[in-house]
What does this fold into?
Amino acid sequence: MLSNLNFRAGVLSVVILLFFLGVWQLATAPEVLMIQEEELSEYEMLTGGGGQRGSSGIPAPSEVISHAVSELSNPFYDAGPNDKGIGIQLGYSIYRVLLGFFLAALIAVPFGFVIGMSPLLNKAFDPFIQVLKPISPLAWMPLALFVIRDSNISAIFVIFICSIWPMLVNTAYGVASVRNDWLNVAKTHELSKVRTAFTVILPAAAPTILTGMRISIGIAWLVIVAAEMLVGGTGIGYYIWNQWNNLDLASVIFAIVMIGIIGFLLDLSLAQATKLVRYAD
It folds into this structure.
């Protein structure tokens, strides 16, 4: 078992995690005992600060873990607009990301397919793509809020905008890169253009298309946090901003960890889908 690379890597990962948590705990815990209640300001006593934290105000990992257990034991509670469980907040964020992502896929993949098959269209649209692609998705937010006048749909629009470019570019590149030998074989068998597209080009370009979709979902998950901080209301981005306003850093750190875990799962799902369309050359 010790000769297995995955097992050894897993053990090393656990050791690194324990080391990191240990350093974090030591960096925050020693001052707990030194801080006496009379040394705390009135503001710190009101916010619960100091009793379990060092002078930096950063909560110890034990406090974050305790908070995580409490949150995860009832993730879907709803006690009002500003007090919802982490499961509800993540659900709103995942819903916005997936809806914006799939709307982008509905446009980017077919359009990328078309411009990938046509050198003329590829050159004609390339200047527009190159100009629009580098624009930060959040730069569209004021315009979206003004035109759409709905914060929830505006956030989905921002996800749509940031998801569309990697899928469009990768699809066009994947389709344009299909070997001429394979296209010539299709011509030899007198396949129609539609049948060639679905039986030759699409399977050949599928790994590149899925790679673009994987990049898009990663960017979308990054952007949703900032977008929800701007639009407010619900979502993990709003949750973090709300907890920051409450000076609840344990909740902020817990939310950051949850963002990482959900982002990892989204990426893993598309990585597995990419494996399904891979083929031996």
Summary: DSSP finds twelve helices and no strands in the chain. Residues 65 and 199 are 51 Å apart (CA to CA).
